[in-house]
Specification:
Blueprint: H1 2-21, H2 23-35, H3 38-138, H4 144-250, E1 267-271, E2 282-285, E3 291-293, E4 298-306, E5 310-316, E6 321-331, E7 338-339, E8 344-351, E9 356-365, E10 368-370
Antiparallel strand pairs: 1-2, 2-9, 3-8, 4-5, 4-7, 5-6, 6-8, 6-9, 8-9, 9-10
Helix pairs in contact: 3-4
């Protein structure tokens, strides 16, 4: 039994020395806890609220920019629709003018064929009229019957000739007018085609502007989404800070004396040291893999394996209080993790002094170990 006590005292001393070795880490943890003081948390809340207001203003500006872009885009769409309407109207006019040109060309072809026939008729009459004209010159006054016959034939042919020439002149005038109309129609078609090209160019430019507007709108949307996500993170941070502020004002480690949760459901084998010694840790005999719980809420400031001590977890509580758990088989927490009272932090592992599964537990204020027994709840309140 004395050997066991000496071994336990030795392990307690080693734990104390290890705690001294951890001092730098613990000091940093203390600084972190100092940042969790109510006044520090309130300052953080105010800073994040300021960020929230700035973020809201920025988001409002982005919304205004998006509204302006949508207004500009709506105007562009209206102009594009009007241009499209004008384009369709001009295309319709061009199709109508082309149909009219086709009809005029058809009429012109027919006129040209008629003119060609009339010219051919005149060419056919001339050979018939010339002999009659010569014969009329040759016949004398004595040949009255022959002369009258020749004159009648000549007069008839001359009348037909005049009629054909008049018809030819009329056809030529109509053809000239038709050619003039065709020329005018082609000029109109050319003007319409030029206007169509101008409208299409304007429409292409507007479509490019529309794409630019849509690209800018997309960028603003992305900025809005990123800003909303940022605001949501700030809002969550503020809520967390408020929760921490509320708990920091409520949670006072000194007020938990006599009400701490027991670190494990097991038999306390011994306590190490006395009032004059440096360690007042407790040793518990447990089953292998049995749950080990945090005696109070706090923050994990150490979680690693130590030679001869298995895995060790140290939790920082308020008012500079620490709790230490050694000989853990495994831990279920991470560095920096916040722990609630009674939360499982690991499983019991092999304790060499017990030659079986167990736990070494220690409570400290600052660097000084304190007797944890007055701090633990009555056995009936272990939970």
């Amino acid at each position: 039994m004395r050997a066991l006590t000496r071994s336990l005292a030795t392990s307690s001393l080693i734990a104390m020395l290890l705690c001294a070795a951890f001092l730098a880490d613990l000091v940093r943890a203390e600084d972190a806890m100092g940042q969790n003081a109510p006044s520090a948390i309130e300052e953080k809340i105010e800073r994040h609220k300021q960020r929230m207001e700035e973020g809201k203003e920025s988001l409002s500006e982005l919304s205004q920019r998006k509204r302006e872009l949508y207004t500009g885009l709506a105007r562009l769409k209206d102009r594009i629709e009007k241009l499209t309407s004008r384009l369709r109207e001009q295309e319709k006019n061009l199709r109508a003018k082309r149909r009219e040109e086709k009809e005029l060309q058809t009429r012109n072809k027919k006129l040209m064929r008629r003119i060609s026939r009339e010219k051919q008729a005149i060419r056919n009459m001339i050979p018939r009229m010339w002999p009659l004209y010569l014969k009329n010159k040759e016949l004398g006054p004595g040949d009255v019957a022959g002369l009258e016959h020749v004159r009648r034939n000549y007069a008839w042919l001359a009348s037909v000739y005049r009629m054909v020439r008049e018809r030819l002149a009329s056809l030529n005038a109509e053809q000239s007018k038709l050619s003039s109309n065709l020329s005018r129609l082609r000029r109109v078609e050319q003007n319409i085609s030029e206007r169509l090209a101008e409208i299409e160019d304007s429409k292409d430019q507007l479509l490019e502007q529309k794409l630019a507007y849509m690209d800018r709108i997309q960028k603003v949307r992305k900025e809005q989404l990123a800003k909303r996500e940022q605001l949501e993170r700030v809002r969550e941070t503020i809520n967390n800070l408020r929760y921490r502020l509320k708990n920091s004002k409520k949670r006072n480690m000194a007020q938990l004396k006599g009400r701490l949760t027991w670190p494990a459901r097991g038999e306390m084998v011994s306590s190490q040291g006395g009032e004059s010694e440096s360690s007042k840790g407790l040793v518990f005999s447990l089953e292998k893999g049995q749950k080990v719980r945090s005696v109070a809420w706090g923050k994990v400031v150490y979680n690693d394996k130590l030679r001869g001590f298995g895995r060790v977890v140290i939790i920082l509580h308020s008012q500079d209080y620490y709790s230490l758990y050694a000989y853990l088989l495994a831990s279920q927490v991470e560095m920096g993790q916040r722990i609630e009272k009674g939360e499982t932090i690991g499983r019991a592992g092999f304790h060499p002094q017990l030659d079986g599964p167990g736990l070494y537990f220690e409570l400290r204020q600052g660097q000084q170990p304190i007797d944890p027994r007055p701090w633990l709840a009555k056995r009936s309140d272990r939970g």
